[in-house]
Structures are given as structure tokens and as C-alpha cells.
Amino acid sequence: MNYHVLKLFYYVAITGSVTKASERLHISQPAISAQIRKFERENHILLFEIKGKRMVLTPLGKRLIEPLEKFFAMGDQVQQIIEDYHKFPEGNLRIAGNYLATSILIPRWASLFKQSFPEVNIQITTTNSHGVMEKLNNFEADVAIYSDMEFPSHNTGVFEHRELYRDEYVFVVSSQHPYANQQVSFEEVMSEAFIMREEGSAARERLVRLCEERSVQQPTIGLQFNGVNEVIQAVIAGYGISYVSALLAKPYLDQGTLANVAVENVVSKHSIWMGYRKKELQESYMQSFITFVMKQLSLK
Amino acid sequence: MNYHVLKLFYYVAITGSVTKASERLHISQPAISAQIRKFERENHILLFEIKGKRMVLTPLGKRLIEPLEKFFAMGDQVQQIIEDYHKFPEGNLRIAGNYLATSILIPRWASLFKQSFPEVNIQITTTNSHGVMEKLNNFEADVAIYSDMEFPSHNTGVFEHRELYRDEYVFVVSSQHPYANQQVSFEEVMSEAFIMREEGSAARERLVRLCEERSVQQPTIGLQFNGVNEVIQAVIAGYGISYVSALLAKPYLDQGTLANVAVENVVSKHSIWMGYRKKELQESYMQSFITFVMKQLSLK
DNA sequence: ACAACTTACGCCTCACGTAATGATA
DNA sequence: TATCATTACGTGAGGCGTAAGTTGT
């Protein structure tokens, strides 16, 4: 497979013109044109049709776009790994965590670990649990810390996972809300307006799942934020109800700005997991970090 | 990025020797050697260390292996799409389904669809729900039919999903089993020996999840098969209990070879979903297939 | 006519092979 | 001394640019 021509093809495809592609790639128009035509000839295919002055993708051409994007993305990852090696010759540890992890668990671990291994560079990224797994999968992170979602991450043979922490989700409202500290049914609570994070958040997924299992109508998401902190602030402000990690809600519940809603018969346990590549594929300081974290947990 | 040298590097890495790589690639030893050394020089990195007669990967080299495998796999997919285009000029529809789908739903749909669109080639593959999503993701399938697992597949912006069918899982035993047609608690049923499919099967994942939510010990899997049919036959033979789709178990329950176990307070609803790429990325016959399936479902 | 893409042709880089040399068990 | 990898060097395929040709608005 001629990788080079694929890039040329891709740029022509997304710009819709050989001329524009040549400007971006700093290669002459005829060179690109010739490459693509030759590629078409060799493979007995047609990638573009000429509609007047425009280059229009054939169905086959269209079909190649998305796989090629993934292909180039993986190539970029390889390049990134090589470049990172220069930037961080002593070791580079990229941790991706959901908000719960990066705001509560990781800060302490990271700073303690850094004291023992000052030469290791540590980068921490926050996204939702879905994004965290994506990052691990795409080699954009070495360690992923995320909520639950036992599937499909736990099945792949490439990663290992350890349960770090057991937690549960709770329904919370402002302390002025009529449901504050009340016991209500699942149906009642679900008819309220919700404040939730974006899709891909583990708590939101869980809530949706609960509704599906019980054949209850999906929650009305009155407000949606990209961060759980923002969600909590909005709930405190008085509008609606949310479903968040108990660990995260605890300080607010203790100080009385948030109140619990006891919902009958809802199992809301979840766990915080740490996922990473198998030993054979790790650098040595990765193993140090894992054993360090496990030791920290056993101390508590 | 020099894609070519990455392949050379990869072959040397997995064979552990330039000589062996040169044999596989049909390129001379010096040529490969020179390429890799040049690549190392250009990027100021070291990929191999010479330990006696062996070529041993450096930590950086090790780190590149797995991303490269993904990278090449995506490249192969691109090539496959081009080759498929020759083999099936009229259209090629690759359906990946779990056993439930490929044994019960798809056979009827596929044959009816083929009658209306005889020119479209249809390939059907059976794996577990996890494998099905992998195939869709890796461009090895155009349509995925799978059980439930709302996460993370439903979150990606690339795919669309439709719910096809609502079903539930049931605990089944042979008709001679003491639990046959009895009502028992979840804890009781989970202390029995189970016959289940491999990891990645949606029913198994659900069962594990149920145990986690209730803090009940994970099931003892006494026998494990790669197919659900085999599981059912083993249960009929008298050993243990299983947790399977009601749709699949129905014929056996009707004829009396299997018996239901009513387990208190367990929500076992699940759905069969169809996932596929968004419209912009489809060929025309894909849309035909989707509307065809939805029509079939509404007829029933 | 102009603004695209294509064809024609010569140049030059770079990956290749052959042959010789170096290292290690 | 046999078996690896590396160095040295000549060769050829192929991607490039320039310039001329073609097509559609």
C-alpha cells in the first residue's frame, strides 16, 4: 500500500480541489494530480468524478475518508510518542481521569509520587469516563482513571484494570427543594427536571440505564454542563435535581448546601477503576506508579 | 512521517532480527539495517540495542509496537475497502451480529432483502456483542447488531443506533433441575454453578454487573462455551444454570427441555440494537437495508 | 478569457542490491 | 569459523517541478 498517495488523496478530498490541496501540502498541482491518477490506474478504481470544475468523490472515495482519518490519527500518535521521548527523556506519565478522579484522588497521588520520582514528567487530563477510555485506547494516555462502565473496556486483552475505590451515586437537590431529605419513588424523582453533564459521563449513562431497565421515561435534562462542579453549583442555585457521585457531593451535603434525596429501590453503586497497558508494554516508571497508588490505597 | 521505515522497524522488532525480517519482507539485510539506522539518526532516537547477537528493543522501541499494530491494521482496512470494491462492484453489505441476531433475526431479513436487492452481496459474521462493535469500529462491518451495552457505543458521534427489539434475559435450567419453575432469591441462584459464554458476551456482562450492583460474589462459571447454542445444550444435559436471552430460550422452554427459574427482584430487560455509520458515509444500499429492516419490524 | 485539471518530460532523491567489512558466540 | 549486523557504493524507480495542453464556465 502506497501510504503517501493516501495523504494526497485525503487532502484533495477534504478541500474538494487539487489546487487547494497543493497549496496546503506545498506540492505542485500536477504532481498531486499525477499521483492520484496513477493510484487509480494501478488499482482499477475511480476516486473522483469531475462535475464541471469541481472534483466530486465517488462512493468508493467517500468510503475511504473516515478510515483514513483514523489511519492518520494513529500515525500521528506514533510520531507523538517519538517526539515526547525527546521532551521527557526521564519518563512521561500521561494520566487521563474523569472529574471525580482528577479533582479528588489524583492531585494527592500525583504530588506524592512526584516527590519520590521527581524526574518523571506528569500530565493530567480531565474528560468524561468515555473520553478517558478513548485516550487510553488511542495512546494519548498511559493511565486511565474512570467510573465503572464495565463494558467493553474490561474485556480487551490489551489493558489491565484495578478497582480503586467503591462509591455510589446519589440524587441531590438544593436544601430548599421540596424533595430535600425526603424519601420518594424512582418515578417521582424522574419526573423532575435534571441538571446533568454531557453524554459520555458515567453518571448520566447510569441514570439513562436505570430508566431503560425500569421502562421509565428518560430524564428531562433542563440544564447541561461540561463539568460536574458546574452541575453542583447549578443545583445549589435551586433549579432541579442531579445524580452525582457521593464522594463528590459529600462536602456540600456536610455543609448543608446540598441535600440528599432517598430514592426507593435504586442500586447506585459504582466503582472507580484504573486502567493501563499490560506490563510488557510499559515503561518502568509506570509500574512504579501503579504500585505506588495501590500502596496509598492500602494505607487508608 | 516516513511510513515505510515503520514497517521495516516493526518486522525487525517482532522477529527480533534483521535477517529474519529481511526474509519475510524480501528485502536485503543491509537495506533494512540502513533504513532503521537512518531513521534513528534523523529522529535522534535509539530503537534497538545490540545484546550479543540479538536485537533488543529499547523502552521507546517497545512503546511503538502496539500503536504501530493499530496503525497497520487501519491501513489494511483501507486496502480491504479498495479490494472489496472490485469483488463486489454492485455493493457489499457486511453485517456483524451476535448469535441472537445472526441466528434468529438476520436470516429472515437478509433473505428477504436479497430478494429485493439481488445485486447486493451480503456477508454475515457472528461474534459476541463486544466483537460486533469492534468490527463496526474497525471498518470490518457496515452494520452491527448487538445486545444492549449502551456505553460507549451510543455516545460516539460517528454511528447511529436504533433499537430493534426488546427482550429480556432469563435464568434457565434443565427441566429435571431442583430450581426448575421455582421462585428463588438472587443470592441462591448465584451460588449455583453457571454455564456461560466467553467474556464479551452481553448476557455474561449483565450477570457480572448484577452481582457487582448487589455486592454478591461473582458467578462460578463451571463450563464456558464460545456459542450460546452450546451453552443451552449443556444446560439441557443437566449441569448447572445459565442466563440467556428469552427469545433464544423460548423454543426450548415451550418444548419442555429447558425450564425457567424465577429470580426475585432482578431486572433483566435488554434490547437488540442496530448500529451503522451516519448517512453521509454510507452507500445507497445501506440506507435501503436500514429502511427495509425498520419496515419489517413495523409489519410484525 | 480564465481557472481549473491533465499530459509530457527531465531531474534528483532515496530505497534498493551486491560486495566487502566488522563483531560476537 | 559461522552467523549475525554494518559500511560502501553503484543503480533504478518514482515523486517532484516546470511548461505546455485540454476542458468547462
UniProtKB/TrEMBL annotation, chains A, B:
Alphabetized GO MF terms: DNA-binding transcription factor activity; transcription cis-regulatory region binding
Superkingdom of origin: Bacteria
Keywords from the named record: DNA-binding, Transcription, Transcription regulation
The keyword Transcription is annotated on this UniProt entry: yes
The keyword Secreted belongs to this UniProt entry's keyword annotation: no
Domain HTH lysR-type residue range list: 1-58
A Pfam family that the UniProt record links to this protein: LysR_substrate
PANTHER family with a match to the protein in the record: HTH-TYPE TRANSCRIPTIONAL REGULATOR (PTHR30126), HTH-TYPE TRANSCRIPTIONAL REGULATOR GLTR (PTHR30126:SF40)
UniProt record similarity statement: Belongs to the LysR transcriptional regulatory family.
Protein name according to UniProt: HTH lysR-type domain-containing protein
